[in-house]
Amino acid sequence: MSLDNKPIYTGGCQCGAVRFRVEGALGTPSICHCRMCQKAFGNFFAPLVSVTDTDLTWTRGEPKRFQSSNHVKRGFCPECGTPLTYEAPDGIALAIGAFDEPEELAPMVQWGLEGKLPYLDTLSTLPGYTSEGDTESAEFLKTMVSYQHPDFDTVRWPAEEAGK
Ligand SMILES: [Zn+2]
Ligand SMILES: [Zn+2]
Fold first, then answer.
1. Which CATH number is 116's domain given?
2. Is residue 59 in some structural domain?
3. Structural domain total, the chain
4. Which of 53, 51, 110 is nearest to 85 (CA)?
């Protein structure tokens, strides 16, 4: 929390080339099932939260934008492709999964129901495993080195450049 008690949120893309900071009250977290959001996120739906009533700062880099319609631009990291923004005339929303603490942003409403995929409601009934529980991937996991930016702001990134 800042001195004037505005909530602060941070986040960014997978590679760390683009980082953001949001000060103030977020809008209602949502998911959108519409076909354009599916494509923009390469996913079943788009999880988004409005930052229209906040101070949004790009603290490292800035998204590249694709104009997906005459009204809307979609922002993404130009280096790694992580979807980051939905930018409409009435404001900007950020991708919930890009926040450093997405668990704080539980969706409260759904949009674009006409595009909802038929198997979504049964996903939670599928058989499931933790990464550690997948014994065939044990060696893969043991030798894996992550290049993903951590879930907090860094002074220098990538880390190996920090000493140069
Ligand atoms: Zn990136
Ligand atoms: Zn949508």
1. 2.170.150.70
2. yes
3. 1
4. 51
Ranges of residues in the chain with a pLDDT under 50 are 1-2, 164
**CA of residue 136 to ligand 2 center, whole Å:** 37
Say what the pTM is.
0.91
Question: Cα of 149 to ligand 2 centre, how many Å?
Answer: 27
What is the Å distance from ligand 2's center to 63 Cα? 19
DSSP state of 99: B
DSSP state of 152: S
Tokens of 67: 């104009």
Domain range enclosing 70: 8-162
pLDDT in tens, 10-36: 999 999 999 999 999 999 999 999 999
Proximal ligand: closest to the CA of 115: 2
Residues, CB-to-ion distance under 5 Å, ligand 2: 32, 34, 37, 112
On whether residue 2 sits in a domain, the answer given is no
Q: How far apart are the first and last CA of the chain?
A: 33
How far, in Å, is the centroid of ligand 1 from the Cα of 118? 31
